[in-house]
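Reopening closed ticket. The problem is back. First fold of the pair:
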Amino acid sequence: MRTPFYDCEAALGARFGEEAGWLIPFAYLPREEEHRAVREAVGLLDLSGRGRILVRGRESARFLQSVLSNDIAGLPAGRGVPATLLTNKGRMLGLMRAYNLGSEYLLDVEPRAREQTLRMLREYKMALRVEIEDVTDSLVALSLQGPRARRLLSMVLDGELAVEREGEIAAHSIERVLAQEGGIADPVVRPNVWIARASHTGEEGYDVFMEQAVGPVMWRILWRMGGALGIRAIGFHALFVLRLEAGIPWYGYDVDETTIPLEAGLESAISFTKGCYIGQETIAMIRYRGHINRKLVGLRLKGDRLPDSGDRVVADDTEVGRITSAAFSFSLRTPIALGYAKCAWAEPGTPLRVKAKEADIEAEVHPLPFVSRGAEPAEA
């Protein structure tokens, strides 16, 4: 399925590929140039592949509090938190950001978790007075990532950007700037967007949610006004490298229905003080009485070869983990990977080997993130 921004992306020479059922840009410029734009200027991303679900109704807060791992009942309007949807045994069915919009909640869901998240929410709803609406097609999303992202949005909004901290979200009128672009043909379309401060790359970032008819116009506005700031369109391949350097796990790549959130370092997606929710017993048992057996780690690889997902990680001849994602880091100038390792072998500096297809690859556990904000490599 094409995204609403397909024509804009094709005009820039995008090379497309399929991800989670969507035809999305895989690359524009050489990936390293896209990567540099996010680290040094501002990158424009099409987030159409992410799922967007609205939850509304008198019992919406109560419902989400009972099924999501973070504290939704205590979430004030204009704020968002990372959250997971778990099985009864504490394994992950979904990974998302949950926002309180005031009159309803917006769930911004990882692309490969959208369908099962929607299905399970509807199954769990039962007789509660809650409406669950999949708005993935009608509410589209772009993201600006990089040190000049805020400056660009402030230019578009004439200095009125209301979100400051990570997780904040606010509605903004774009009526003036739409009028300058000739307006929208559909008189029913509201000239408003929701802007959330959200990093997908480790750099400062902002997601812009808007009605589908507004989307391509907003793209053109951002592209035109961002020219002086060095804006570049960012494809999936460059985003993959950026999120890997930032140590951000993706659903369907690094976490799935076999993963306990604590294994993946997703403590920020969990409230340890709220009441009961699905999967809470397992999480509490690990937190207060037990421990995890494995954890997601960064691996700095020697040589120039990349392992495949699923390749075994060994210490001497003992298997201690598996690779989940790998890419060449443009910041570190070396291959890096995420993978799981048994806790005894998860300390930074631990030497390991990856049993790749052609030959073993030497590796060393590296602290996450690999690269901190401002493109400075983390200390090994």
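Second fold of the pair, where the issue appears:
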Amino acid sequence: MEHARADSPPDLVAALARARSPRRPGPGTPAGGAVRAWPGPPAAFPTAGPGDLDVQVLLRLSLAASDGSGRLRPAPSAGALHPVDTELTVGAGCSLPPGRYGYDPLRHRVHRLGPQPDGTPPGVTAALSVTARRTLSHYGHRAWPLLLLDTGHAAAALYLAARALGVSEPEVRLDGLAENPPAAVHIPPPGRRGPARPADSARRPEPSEPTPAELLARRSAPPPLPGAPSQDALRAVLATAARAGTGDLRWCAAVGPPRPGLVEPAADGAALRRYAAGEARPTLAAWAAGQAWIADAGAVLLAVGCPADADAPHIRRAHLRAGFAVHLAHVTARRHGLAARPVGSWQQADLGAALGAAPGRDWVVHALALGTRHADEENTT
């Protein structure tokens, strides 16, 4: 995942096993620069011409920082450390001249790296890689799944920004086959279709186009998150996640009284099916690095899968798709008046074994804690 740097994991399978263990991270280390040091001078974005894809607005809606520290961005990140770096390959039909560029999200500027490769399609392709040191500085051995989840969130932010600009067919690569870059998003100019989609590219999961205002307003709500979502809101959030994170993941939600347990979408998608009884939220709080507030969250959306014997491509694919799906589910939650916060760090979270199934098969990969905006809005129906 890293550009041949010393903090790149020699064995992703072993790295995930360590991240899932109860061992606590050691003392923090320096995070290094908040932005990759791209070569060459920074350049502002040209004004988009008629019919061009406005790359400046695309990145403003998806990856640009809105504060000087770089912590506040449309895409969330574990610890607000934002390890994802973006390299753009620009073809015809864009506000930027064709070429390769590195993006600086703090200054909202680009650095030209060279000409575009032969055969570059119209539009822009954002290749997403990571500077692992940023996340390792705080999370230590727990960082590697978080790096992949953050990359999935960044891919989703680009996808939604493209939809907000009228692009109907962004192509998202989250197949897990490539170590570096692990993800890429191709965005054709508005009104044009991109290249043929590979079978494993992300499906279009959100039927209604987001608005720029709602993308810029998306923030992770601070805990606590009390108040149970309505059945309609929870069903919509689950449906969005299930459509966006298909394949290797199972989606369910932990809910509290009056009927605590785990629910999942029914086969017809029109209702929620209860498949496990009992209060799960305190156990989830213990598994999620001891974040006690999760025990009182209104509900917790869960992405489950990635067995202990998964190989590196499977691990990358499951975590990338989980981050992508949780990001879209977060937008759906906000549309239904819910507060939401992604939860990415999980230890000993073998949900399948806790429910009596074979151990090592169904681990919690990612989650989205949900609540109403005020505790007195709790829905008890």
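Update: turned out to be a display glitch only; the data is intact. Confidence is low (pLDDT under 50) at residues 1-7, 374-381. The chain has nine helices and twelve strands. Please close again.
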